[in-house]
Amino acid sequence: MTSPSASPHPAKRPLVVMKSVSKVFSSGTLALSDMSLTVESGEFISLLGPSGCGKSTALRIIAGLGDVSAGSIDWPSSRINSRGLPEGDISFVFQEPTLMPWQTVFGNVHLPLKLKGVSKAAARDDIMAALTTVGLKDFADAYPRELSGGMKMRVSIARALVTKPKLLLMDEPFAALDEITRQKLNDDVLKLWKDTGITVIFVTHSVFESAYLSNRIVVMKARPGRVHADFPLTTSLERGELYRSSEEYRQACEMVSKTLLDAMGGVEEH
Ligand SMILES: Nc1ncnc2c1ncn2[C@@H]1O[C@H](COP(=O)(O)OP(=O)(O)OP(=O)(O)O)[C@@H](O)[C@H]1O
């Protein structure tokens, strides 16, 4: 029997809660100080801030690639493994695609599943599905040297998706690409986000990219990093070419740009 106080629609629990996190490196650098951030499932968050403010450090800590000096990272809606991490729920895409040159595209995307003991044969459907998602299903047998920079990054994204994570952490993934390729990949990531409902935290230096992609912007203060501003970014327009040339997008860019400048103490970076 259900208790009279139990709600038929229990409130959704956040995906990850970063509570008053500080990080001091062994060098003595205080990278983060009292940083708190609650991420809901299905959000697309862009994390911006002055160079060196701790964006990558925050992302790496969420991924379990570094420990906290104080505070905590909680996963209220996930099953936690012995390392305190939600097993299989997080994937990371770095700025460099870091592909194994001696492996084909298929072999590279297989890697995370191979590490879990899944054979190529058993992983085939998942690998091909991930490659289809990034538009590379016809390149499964190609080697990284045969691919363009954008294609290599797509392989890296497919490799991150093959484990079907709940959370995709992306650390300036498109910074090294030319503008047209970057815009194309922005559209691909948006489609992926819409189609799969995956949660994304995306570190970028680009005001334009953040305003185009995200439904929430988090701007960090200069080191030691913590949240300076956190606001939603809604639009009545479908994000695409029309949005890129719209007044709404221009205003969103202006707002993000002003907030970023404010976080830097009103002084432009050189
Ligand atoms: N492993 C490390 N050991 C010591 N200091 C580190 C380490 N990693 C980062 N730092 C320092 O911590 C601070 C935050 O670095 P982090 O890379 O997180 O900043 P960021 O905001 O991502 O920078 P950028 O925008 O330039 O990529 C910097 O001062 C950096 O030098």
From TrEMBL:
Domain ABC transporter, first and last residues per copy: 16-247
Parts forming coiled coils: none
MF term (GO), any: ATP binding
Alphabetized UniProt keyword annotations: ATP-binding, Nucleotide-binding, Transport
Gene3D superfamilies, per database record: P-loop containing nucleotide triphosphate hydrolases
Domain of life: Bacteria
Similarity section: Belongs to the ABC transporter superfamily.
Name of the protein: NitT/TauT family transport system ATP-binding protein
Annotated source species: Allorhizobium borbori
